[in-house]
Amino acid sequence: MKSALDQQCKLLLTVNSLFVLAGALSGTFLNVYLWKFKQDFTMIGWFAFSQQLAIGLTFWIAGKWVKERDKMIILRLGIIISGLFYLLVLASGARMVHYIWPLGILSGIGAGIFWLAFNVVYFEVTDKANRDLFNGWVGVMGSVIGIIGPWLSGWLISVMPGVRGYRVIFTVSLIVYGGGVLLSFRLKKRERGKGYRWLEPVRRLKPGSPWRQAVPASIAYGLREGVFIFMINLLVYISTSSEWKVGQYMLITSLVSLVSYWAAGKWLAIRHRWLEMLIGAFMMTLIVIPLLWKMSYMTLLIFGVGTSLFMPLYIIPMISSVFDLMGRDKTDAEHRVELIVLREISMMVGRLAGIAIFIWLYTRSPHMSTILWLMAGLGAAPLMSWLAMRKLLAA
């Protein structure tokens, strides 16, 4: 059993970090960029919906290639398609608002292909002994990137007139994606699996299967993230009318996240996952409440800092426990691709449900109070995840 990260783990972390960096530089402000051209929450909701739909379907369809062929090719293809998306964003400019669905689908395909390959390789280069450590480092690197990327982007956008700053950061993201592709060639080719079983995710939902606990937990996680992932930065911009403030917000919250993920990776213990996830889920539910009192930069900052502080307690035990299910025995390990697909489709269902609820409610009551009350409701989803997984965590 491995207890530390070997060279392949470190390389995979670096490739992942470059992919996340490119997304942090541009993705942080992508919805703000859309908002500048058309102030329409419903449009942005449909953009997020198309992305998440494409991610989930890509996981399922591309699973056959990832299992039966070269995973590294898929990993690189995901980075390349993500770069192509930003190239088209650069080319379309203000016309982007007319191509929400095709651009959202392209973005989702790139992300879906990359994360599918990454999750499979991540499973293969780690084991139960170092999986929490790896996840902790993923969080640490993501936090460092969250400090540097959005802050730099916000500054560039603020000092450059019009949308020139956006064009610069989109271009920089293209360069970073290119660096990720080049570095990925140092990752070893992984062993190919046997035939891909299209309906294996369905078979895993039979009575008595631990996946009947893991799937609802993943759906609940997606229910919250589907809306929060695109809404928070946009609300910060709406509250302040400043990309620089958005960058500062990300810097502060990511700095807190850096410390909390580092501490979680160092001190979280497998035997305490049940309690750790409960504390994290409960606190993440509470921190949404200040937004109901008043939506301002300060209440959003309280929410962001609280999320950054308690997210590791919630997410690391859940992710590690779900991936542990994939390695329980030889049969499960052989179907790791299908099980990763099951996990992602579960989260996609949750994300699509959350976004659909948002679009439906806001269309009927187009007020900021509608958004804030919905966020308060969806903010309780982590508790639903814990309730679904509590027996699995205690095992």
UniProtKB/TrEMBL annotation:
Its main location: membrane. It is found in: Cell membrane. InterPro entries: MFS, MFS_trans_sf, Sugar_transport-like. Pfam families: MFS_1. It is a multi-pass membrane protein. SUPFAM superfamilies: MFS general substrate transporter (SSF103473). The keyword Cytoplasm does not apply. The chain crosses the membrane at residues 12-35, 41-61, 73-93, 99-122, 134-153, 165-187, 221-240, 246-263, 275-293, 299-319, 340-362, 368-389. Signal peptide: none annotated. The keyword Transmembrane applies. Keywords: Membrane, Transmembrane, Transmembrane helix. This is MFS transporter.
